[in-house]
Specification:
mainly alpha, single chain
Length: 154
């Protein structure tokens, strides 16, 4: 099977290469071939402009959208949990109640349990200096793996 694929590839490659280097005439005006866009595009600049013009929840937490964010090198479970806190879309009681998956939206402390409540105001789970969570420093990662994971598992 791989011999057949190799023969097909070697047969069609020169034709494909010729089409890309020496553009054929455009037959239909409705088509937009790859070579029709001849102006070079700076992807990084385009991404930054799109990011700044979009209305994104917690956009202020990302200074430069073109670089890997703090905590990107964490294990997947921790990275996912960190992102859930950043976007306020975690499996807290308020969201579970809203989705019809929990009977109550209250935390063990008696207040409404949101992702922000777990980090900033809950006396049982509060992270001292909650903004450290967004920098994903060692204290925040330890809190994330222990306290936050325990609070959300109830």
């Amino acid at each position: 099977m791989s011999v057949l694929v190799g023969e097909i590839y070697s047969y069609f490659l020169p034709f494909l290469h010729a089409d890309i280097v020496n553009h054929p005439a455009q037959r239909l005006t409705s088509r937009r071939p790859v070579w029709a866009e001849t102006a070079p595009i700076d992807i990084t600049t385009q991404w930054e402009e799109d990011w700044l013009s979009a209305s994104v929840v917690s956009q202020h937490l990302v200074c430069d959208p073109t670089i890997q964010q703090p905590g990107f090198d964490l294990p997947r479970r921790s990275w996912t949990l960190l992102n859930r806190f950043w976007t306020d879309r975690g499996l807290c009681c308020a969201n579970l109640h809203k989705w019809g998956l929990a009977a109550s939206e209250l935390c063990d402390c008696g207040q409404r349990q949101t992702m922000g409540h777990i980090v900033d105001s809950c006396p049982l789970t509060q992270l001292d200096g909650g903004q450290r969570l967004h920098k994903a420093n060692d204290d925040a990662v330890t809190w994330l793996k222990t306290t936050a994971a325990t609070a959300l598992s109830k």
